[in-house]
Specification:
With 252 residues, this protein is an all-alpha fold. The chain has helices at 2-7, 10-16, 19-61, 66-76, 81-99, 110-130, 133-165, 170-180, 182-225, 231-236. It is built from ten helices and no strands. The longest helix is centred in the C-terminal third of the chain and has 44 residues, at 182-225. The chain starts with a helix and ends in a 16-residue tail after the last helix. The model is unreliable at 1-6 and 228-252 (pLDDT under 50).
Amino acid sequence: MNTVDANFGFAHLVAQSDAVGKSLLVLLLLMSITSWALIALKGLAQWRRRRAGDAFLARFWNARSLDDVRRDLDAHGAHDPFAHLSAQALHAQDHHARHGATRLADAGSAGEYVTRTMRKVLDEETTALESGLTTLATIGATAPFVGLFGTVWGVYHALAAIGASGAGTLDKVAGPVGEALIMTGLGLAVAIPAVVAYNAFTRANRLLTARLDAFAFELHSYLTLGQAPGAAARAGAGDAASAVRALKPHAA
């Protein structure tokens, strides 16, 4: 039994594999490298995005006016979706105030132009958040089948070799067939991290998109009304604690 165990394994699988088997192993290796690289890059980008976004939102809600927000963006830049949305919305408001509807792209009122700009930014941010997820989903869906194909290919050659030798005992069959199953295990080992990461990133992106949509609604209200929706009604009802402090709009 010890001799049989020593003769079969991953090293023996690689050594005796033909061109197809080696190609499948290389493909699984490339899938694994790509998957873990995407996981690391997107995880780091997500952490930085969340940290920068929380910092910007804290500064935004503590600003005394939209002019303070403009100065903050000039000082710190727009390195997260919330800051990017704010910068583009403020720029759109200033642009329409200076130039008006001189082009088809600027047609409509200032509020409509700001709305179109914000929608465009939201679409851009959603596309950026989803970059790389298709690759992770593809790896998670196809890696098990690549490993299964390698197992089928290995079992076929193992059984063909056993049939040619005429040795059909259990100890002669179990080793090669069990060795071929390594390919299925490798396929699963590549697919499982990709699927888990895809689901985690998708959920995080969905939550961020919801927060960004809510912030876009509030920001649009500040730009067009000078205060958050319902702030005046809450303040008039005497609920000073829940009233949202109005931000002064930028003077045209």
